[in-house]
Amino acid sequence: MEAGEEFGPWLARQLKLAGRTQAELADELGLTRAAVSAWITRRSVPRPTVMGEIAKALGTDLGTVHTRTTDTQAGLPITWYHRPGYQDGGRDGGNAAAFAFDADVQVLARETCQNSLDERLVQNGRPVRVRYTIHELTGEALEAFRAAVLWDDLQPHYEAVSRSASNQKVGRVVDAGVRDMFEKSRLILLRIDDYNASGLTGDDYGDGKFAAVVRRQLESLKSGLGAGGSYGLGKATLWATSALGMVLINSTLSDPHEGRTERRVIGRLELPWRSVDGIPYAGPAWLGRPDPDTPGAEVVRSWWADEETVERLHLTRDNDEPGTSFLIVGAHDVASLDQGRPDSADDEDGNGLEDDGTRDIRVMHRRLVEALSRDFWAAMTGGGTKLPLLETSVRTLRNGEVVIDEEKVDPAVKQPSRTRALRAFYEGTTVDRLTESGQVALRTVPLRLPLSGGRAGTLGTHPGVLLVTDAEGDDVPNQVHSLRGSRMTIKKSGVASLPLGVNPFQAVLLVGRAAGESAPFAEEAEEFLRAAEPPEHDRWGQTEELTLRWSHSAHHRIARLTTEVNAAVKELVVRPRSTGSQESAKLRKKLTVSRKSAAPRRASGPGKPELDGLDAEIGADREWRITAEVKLPRAEELPVMTPVVLLDVRSGSRPRLDWAELVAVEGCEVENGVLRFTPGARRAVFRGSTDVTSHPVRTELTRLVLELRAGTGSEA
What we know:
Blueprint: H1 7-18, H2 22-29, H3 33-40, H4 48-58, H5 62-67, E1 79-84, H6 105-118, E2 128-138, H7 139-148, H8 151-163, H9 169-183, E3 186-195, H10 209-214, H11 236-240, E4 242-252, E5 264-270, E6 274-276, E7 279-290, E8 300-301, E9 303-304, H12 307-312, E10 323-331, H13 359-375, E11 390-398, E12 401-408, H14 411-414, H15 416-427, E13 440-450, E14 458-470, E15 479-483, E16 489-494, E17 505-510, H16 522-531, H17 544-549, H18 555-573, H19 582-590, E18 591-593, E19 610-618, E20 624-631, E21 641-647, E22 659-666, E23 668-671, E24 674-677, E25 683-690, E26 704-710
Parallel strand pairs: 2-11, 15-17, 18-26
Antiparallel strand pairs: 1-7, 2-3, 3-10, 4-5, 4-10, 5-7, 5-9, 6-7, 7-8, 11-12, 13-14, 14-17, 15-16, 19-20, 20-25, 21-26, 22-25, 23-24
Helix pairs in contact: 2-3, 6-13, 8-9
């Protein structure tokens, strides 16, 4: 059972909430004022027989007085406090911080999961567990929730916003959210729960995590250089994702506040300036219990809710483990809730998303899983003595009934190559060079850290760790994922100027603490790179903080790191060619591009794709394995082309070989042996293997010609 607050402070707050004095309580109990004062100042506690009388006087039960884990229901009720309009006539059209991010659940997942990682309790060595719950309410469940959030009190404010919606972007979003709720008779709740995290500790108004999240903007109280966030903007994604601008919060604290830890509840509403009954309101509002210490007891503060209240607000947590639950009311996702946008998401049976009313929440579920696996695969990966930092899952409900079972995100399934690379690093099984499938090669790449304050010179060289392995089932091959201490993917980039014929690979760059806390200058690299990240934390480059703390040219150190990484990747994945190799020379002579004599170009008319580069080798089964690059002209529509492979002979017609396999690599699709090019692409790459049974002579004795023919090639 949760330890209750000390009797004296608890009793003092109950008297304030009820608007009563110590003298009035003493008179009702038939005791002296000095006796009540002794309780308040902790010099004594009432006898057990007096506890029942105190409960009666406060209008509560004896158990509440004994446990003191919640406030009595007597006195000032839970209500919404709306910040008054500015006396100088100023107006805010909404919270500007919310415009730093899109209303996109994938952006939300990135920011909220990053915040949970930053607040992980590290002493026990366990990961922080983050669960996303999508819950659609309809009918009676919706009506019950609206009553719990005191909708009747809020409706005049929403109506005032709707009246002025044409002049405010935030107002238009809110107006659309309210209309969606009433016209479709539904409301989507999106709750983010984290466990083994610090919770919103600190006073309601003082310098603490609670005030930084609930009361303030652009304030970040992250501890440690490895934290992901630094701008204090990430929390704004919570309100940006709510079409109603409403977020409810229930926090279990790692450090007690007022003697308690469980069910610290508050709500915050973000609306633009409005006028209700002739009274101007600045914008934000809070749901809580009026604070008797504020003028007129108008300002509300968080309160210690009972279990029934958090259940009605859909804020019930699984257990008493520290952490916070954020409930986004009226969650909307610009990408997945656009009804006009075709979506190819499939249900579990592979039959597509049927129109059973759950399409929106099913697509939202899928997009959350995609984002978590893409951005936090490294944080969810462990190996050797290195434990995962994070566990994530997504579940989807409607009126309490399961629509999609809780899906735990498995990085090994979603990102197999990258997780294999990271595990090999943790387990010490990396190699110097890739010689077999499944191996992970390691290289160190230097990050030369500048001196701070604009001084010339280098502080030291931090050895970043580059891991390279062959791609297997990942989304986009030939990419480098870069990350630092929080192990969230910061930067995703390709490797420029790769030659044709490179086997698909994946690379991971670990810098800062991610390279190992014992790595030279790990802390300094962490601080430097953190300052080089924009609010989205999706790249490293020039930022104002980097300029102020180091110099205007400090970002060139990061550019040089990228150059070192690309060079190291190429050194590992590009097959070396010996200029004196007789076998290579023979192969180059055996493969040619068929080019007809050039005719004068016409001044008009669409151009045609042309073969621009070829690479080939003889495979293990004596087949020709060909990689071809196609140069694409600038045109809105490109004709389909058929690649045809022929034997080069001195006389007569050239025998045509069959394709055993023909696959698209970049800028095109292959359909029944025909190439269809991606609109807007400037180059395309495809690979093919010949069918050995169609070879009339031994492969080693043949010379090939590759042609690119317009049309389906059926006439050839």
